[in-house]
Amino acid sequence: MVSILSLLSFLLVVIPQTLGDDEACGPNQPKILQGSTGIIQSPGFSDRKNYPETIQCTYEIQAPPGQRVRLNFHFLDIETSSSCRYDYLAVYNKINETQYREAVFCGNVLPRDIMSLKEIFVIRFVSDPLITASGFNLTWLTTDMSLCYPEEFQCKNRKCVLDEVLCDGTDDCGDGTDEEGCDLPLTPAPPCGQPVFPPIEGADRIIGGQEVRQGSWPWQAELQRGFYSPNGHVCGATILNANWVLTAAHCFLDGLEKHRLRLHLGKHNAYLTDPTEQVRYIDTYIIYPREVNKKITAMSDFDIMHDFALIKLNAPLKFTDYVRPACLPQKDYELTVGSFCYVTGWGVTRGTGGNDVLKQAESEILDEADCSTEFVDFNSTTMICTGTQAGGHGVCHGDSGGPLSCKFGDHWEVLGVASYVTRNNMISGLCGVKNGPSGYARISTHIDWINDIMESFS
């Protein structure tokens, strides 16, 4: 409501300047914009044409001293990809000549209004040589108003909610930020490992896998980079209870810090917001054995033999038919070689289709000798070897951190966390190849560690 009123007040006194297609895309970029308001759109948008291939356009919006810049999106249709790696619209705060990334957009999910930290926003639109789309159209305005009204609370996702709903036990923000630190009693948890919607069982070929029945793996979570919309996929994860999620330590490689990450729960579609979806941020993460919020920039910063990280959420989850906790195995339980479990994730599919949805694949438990590589000396005490020696299906880049789910009677247990998922390691190498099974971090030998960490930090 603030954005509409503010925009209308400006429109009454000034006609916004519409930046024509190519003004900011030539050799003299960035295009400097000053004044009260204006419209920015992708090249070709006014003629209802797709934006061109291989283009870069840069705009620098400068507000008067003491004011900030607000962006209001009217239309967005930019080639969709994980972490917007091909075409994208990036927004940066410029402070003392240094640019700090605020957000990166692609796809067609319309963003909420976004506000600069200081007087300058830099907007950069980039396309690659391949696929193009309709583009974008947004209004910018300079203002001394905040994103939300004085009687409202600004959620981390830029949604505004009334102050009176804070700590009321309902996730009004949609990301838990209105329920942080409230110390309310948790709602009773449903039985672990028992999905309301049973998984599709039977052999299938995440490389060569199949789309899951929505909600059939309700303990599956996704770790994403928070800058990117609609999807900044990093890793999979497993819901343990309303406050804790388990993933792999190596998912924090590249120096990813907790404020740059978010968790998605109850998710099925990679690039759409599911109505069943919940979002949370990271309060604390612990790298095995007890490294709190440790910045990981190299393989030597964590123990590949114990590739675990526990994540405490910023606010409790609300359990539903689509968000439910996993069962963990008995301490020191060993899977039988030749038995079958399931692997799930949104990882790379190498042309086998379905990279926009959660997928599953049946995975055989193999002998430890099958998983020993030059990269790691496989340790059956702390690892599980699974996959297929024949190749053709299995996990791949992006499936790391996700669960290895095994059925026991009327319930499922998560026995492993995806660790090194390619023939070489967890970062590079081929997936789904002959003699290239995957290594999962073994949960049953870490039950005491999991319980101790959750108790110590709760």
UniProtKB/TrEMBL annotation:
Keyword entries, A-Z: Disulfide bond, Hemolymph clotting, Hydrolase, Protease, Serine protease, Signal
Disulfide links within the chain: C148-C160, C155-C173, C167-C182
Alphabetized Gene3D superfamilies for the sequence: Low-density Lipoprotein Receptor, Spermadhesin, CUB domain, Trypsin-like serine proteases
Stretch forming the signal peptide: 1-20
UniProt entry tagged with the keyword Disulfide bond: yes
Domain Peptidase S1: 206-455
Keyword Transferase: no
Matches recorded under Pfam families: CUB (PF00431), Ldl_recept_a (PF00057), Trypsin (PF00089)
InterPro entries (UniProt xref): CUB_dom, LDL_receptor-like_sf, LDLR_class-A_CS, LDrepeatLR_classA_rpt, Peptidase_S1_PA, Peptidase_S1_PA_chymotrypsin, Peptidase_S1A, Sperma_CUB_dom_sf
SMART domains in the cross-refs: CUB (SM00042), LDLa (SM00192), Tryp_SPc (SM00020)
UniProt superkingdom: Eukaryota
Domain (CUB) ranges: 25-143
PANTHER family: ACROSIN-RELATED, HYALIN
Protein name: Chymotrypsin-like elastase family member 2A
